[in-house]
Design brief:
Length: 394
Amino acid sequence: MILKEAIKTLAARHAPDFIKIRQHIHAHPELSYQEFETSRYIQQHLSGMGIPFQIMATTGIVAQIKGRNPEKRVVALRGDMDALPIKEENDIPYKSRHEGLMHACGHDVHTTCLLGAAKILDETKDQWEGTVKLIFQPGEEKNPGGASLMIKEGVLENPRPQAIFALHVHPGLEVGKLSFRGGKIMASADEIYMTIRAKGGHAASPHLTADPILVASQMIIALQQVISRNRNPFIPSVLSITSIQGGHTTNVIPSEVKLMGTFRSMDETWRYEAHELIRKTATGIVEGMGATLDLVFDIGYPCVYNNEALNEKTKMLGEAYMGKENVEETELRMGAEDFGYYSQQIPGCFFRLGAGNAKKGITSGVHTPTFNIDESAIEIGMGMMAMIATNIEL
């Protein structure tokens, strides 16, 4: 396998430095589309390596490393940079210094692994052919998704990659392991915002009101039938109403109730059919009970689809790099990822990097205040990204 041993040697040599980089990024989290310091930090490291780059989507970065015969093949690697509005509860030296913000989804790791891969690729560029585009992406956690913005600004052009790859830490997978899956692997995700308005009044006289709280409760229950009675049972779907806001005291029926939720699916046709069913069902119940409804769908990320042939080739590289016994199949997940925008445009492969360690108590899931990783995963992640970029058959 081309460069395998050289990549492993360099990943091991540089891993301690990149663990420190990850800890710095972890300690300085920034929200989606606000990754200004993170972006500058990455730019400094790229400049230090002599790797040319340009800014996209305000805080995003795209860099290029050219090997021999740079026009022969073009591969893209992507890492996301944004953090979440979560207060960190880990007792670690590199705990978040920004109150209420945390890298709770591992984007600090993804960015570090991509930066580490850049170091390896730059030091071996006389040994491999083609061009590697490095995409440091903002805003994965928030609509419209940084991927969509980067694509609009031309990140997949000049030159156009033949394939794109990204990894994601997985605390449920032990460190030292990788997982892959072809086809659809993550769901689309759309946000739902509803406002029910009706005549309010005194709580002791409900007959003189239309009671939007009662209307909302009836509507929520009815909406679940959109999923259970209308969808093909072989299409995974989730409809969750996650917020109800209305009223402020015990003796007043409010005149307005606001609701928020999410709809997720593994099928793009059914996705939009369900939107109409949700709208018709909700409107019918609300108006039938004497209220009015404002309903907005904020269209989110599409399904993440792994090109089957590309996934199989990438999985084989994973087996060659880590050993067949350390490669598993990724489970289907109803979570969403804006990597789906890339894989709509060009063949893509989104795989999982084991980051958990049960013996060390590192088991907390992503988007929790105690999420963390076994940092030995960084050496594996940066090496595996370099392995893919130099060896994938296109």
